[in-house]
Amino acid sequence: MVALARSPRIQPKTDETSAFEADVLAGLHATPKRLPPKYFYDGVGSQLFERITDLPEYYPTRCEMRILRDHGRDIARLVPQGATLVEFGSGSSKKARILLRALPPLAAYVPVDICGEMIEQEALELRPDFPGLKVLPVTADITQQFTLPQEALAAPVRIGFFPGSTIGNFEPHEAAAFLRNAARILGAGATLIVGADLVKPVDVLHAAYNDAAGVTAKFNLNLLVRINRELSGTFKLDTFEHHAFYNRERHRIEMHLASLKRQKVKVAGETIDFRAGETIHTENSYKYSVDSLGALARGAGWQPAGGWTDERNYFSIQAFALAKPQTTPRAGG
Ligand code: AVI
Description:
By secondary structure, this protein is α/β, with parallel strands linked by helices. The protein is about 40% helix and about 25% strand. The strands form 3 sheets. A 7-stranded mixed β-sheet has the order 4-3-2-5-6-13-12, with helices on both faces. Strands 1-11-8-7 form a 4-stranded mixed β-sheet.
């Protein structure tokens, strides 16, 4: 009965809602307060993110698509015929479509995403556009170990694809853990193609996360809307404000939600106190250099194998190769 006493909701919690509740309460009781960025992406949050990618100030998506279009043939040189392409956190497969058009015939394309419904739907839409390509969606958390379908494992080699600068939303130690996990999943001889946003003038970064139309502010505040809806929260949206700024020492954009006054908010039956001006840290978006991402990848067992940027050097796509295990020469041979 303890759980019921803490939460006014009567219906039993699914694993997903109880993980959300546990993470939100832990983050709001922490000092400083924080919330994991993965919870931005409910239905409304995903739509708001799609709108962000079209904003005039938000350059990363356009830059990455341009690089894929301009350098698809060069990238394709790293992909042998008959390989399997595994996309980590594929979402709408928008970028994979560009890459797939440039690649030689593949054994399969495996989009991996936590949102099973979305990738099943995308697979349905991809198949008629790429007849002859096996599309084998896998529903999984890309930060955890998961198993590829048998057909993907049977291919002579696997190519990982991690676009969107999603790597930038990981803390550096999490990014390193992701790269090590990707190496385990893809196996010997693999190549990993990663999209990463680059360090650049602060005014460009500032504008990208403080757009004039206020879509990024809505995206940030939607986290409180979600908490109100799913965890019986009492956040008053007009008492919180979107803050985004570049932290030069740590090479990252930080997003926060700042309380405009001293107040108490209820979440899942618990009371959270806010001082005036106190913030909830909701996201970091790390900006890399070609060298800093290369160093991170090397530390996780990958060797730089190629790199491409747009003409302003705003964004990069970098390829890393996993060394094949050395075969031990036979004695007396
Ligand atoms: C998904 N991710 C790479 C975006 C970024 O730029 O860090 C999320 C985002 N946050 C605010 N605007 C976009």
